[in-house]
Amino acid sequence: MAKAPSGSPDDKGSLLSPDAMGGINAGKGFDFQSRYTVCHLPIWLQDDSFHQLFTEGTGDIDIRYLENGKSRRKHIQTKDHDVAPAEFKEVIGAFRKFNADMPDTYQEFRLACPSLSQQMRPVETGLSRFRNAKPFYDDDVPALAQTKSDVDQRMRTVGLSDEDIAFIHEKVFIDVGHGDLAHDERALDLFIARMLSHPEFASKIRAMVQPAYAALLNKVGASKGAVLDKSSIKTLLRSAVLADLSAEASVTLWVHNWTKEAFTPPADYELDWTPLFDRGSRKVPSPDAWTNDLVPQLDGLRKLIMAAGAVRTIRLRGKCTLSTGIAIGATFPAVGSWTFEISQPPAKEFWRSDATPTPGYALQTEITEADPNGTDLVLGLNIRGDGRLDVMRYVESTGQAPNAFVFMSPPSQGAQSIGGDGDAVAMAMAVREELGKLLKARQLRMTRLFFYGPFALSVFLGQQLTSIGRIQLFEYQDPSYVPSCLLKT
Prior knowledge:
By secondary structure, this protein is of the alpha/beta class. Helices cover 41% and strands 20% of the residues.
């Protein structure tokens, strides 16, 4: 047979190989695997080093741990039936192949199943007893020599080679006792019990936790072949657990910038910043005022709302600058399961930050290189018009050339370029993704942000701007721009 060309699905270690694609191609036949994953996530999430989950990557389930900048990976194969010697040998062979194809990538291989066949049980019990005893005899290794010899003989009896046995001792673990995972109702009970053992959800009642089971099943089932980050999993859990409560309860926040007005519904919390703003001259607070006064007020407000209960929905009302919108969003980020409801004229319906993002949103990005030694990016968001010349003219007047000018915009510009909250959420998420990639590729940690768009979008954007370094915001103050709020994400 001719050798497969480089990059073909038959290449060793390829995520496109037939072995790696088997689960994805099989489609809906992996209910046991999904239940196992969902019911173990509450346990994995309690490990601070848990970083990512990858289902159907090189097989069934891959887990990545990250600690002090170093990665550790675990590969899990699930079987929804009792495993007999012939199948166990096949699994060990597959483990060894993955280990050879990706040297030093995986530190642990695990077989998870309801139980082993009668012939295989002596292997599992012997191996488990030997491993459990090792810590007690760590200063007297020869004491377990006979036990190890007996375990090895049990493995030879079921057809395993000496190479298989050595590999099992080094990296393979057998995880049995998962018969309940063949049934949704029993798996649900197990999931709820484990969720309630998680410190973050320990006080939640069953009715609040139960929706997270279905949400995770759907997410895991829809993410085969895709990486799930710890942060996105925790966000999904928080959102599902708090969904019913958030729908029933919300807080109303009034924030005053240009004018002080009354709104509906009445305010639960109110921030009056009008002494620092003047609409006629477009005067906005100084950077020091933002850093020393306004941003601390927002931080204090967040703590106050959190201390009052589990409500995470905020009805935001007020005539505010775009910098205020971004700063508010950044204080109540999406990763914290905060949701905003905002009036955005001329739309009759309120815009919500938990709206379903518009599928296939085509963010437009234009990059103009500047100073290779520049230490930041200038990011212009052109939604209601093209502000490139004004932004570039202002930046050049400061004498601080960036590494590059980056301008992002929706598929079309103008007053109707954002058709609703779905477009706004999609654009905010796309901007965060693209900006993160650019900063990482250029090894930068500072962005100067110029925003020209609807207020609700500014809040949604702020909610997405997490973990990407410092962001200096600017406001237009005739005849040019002035720096406003500095965000430290």
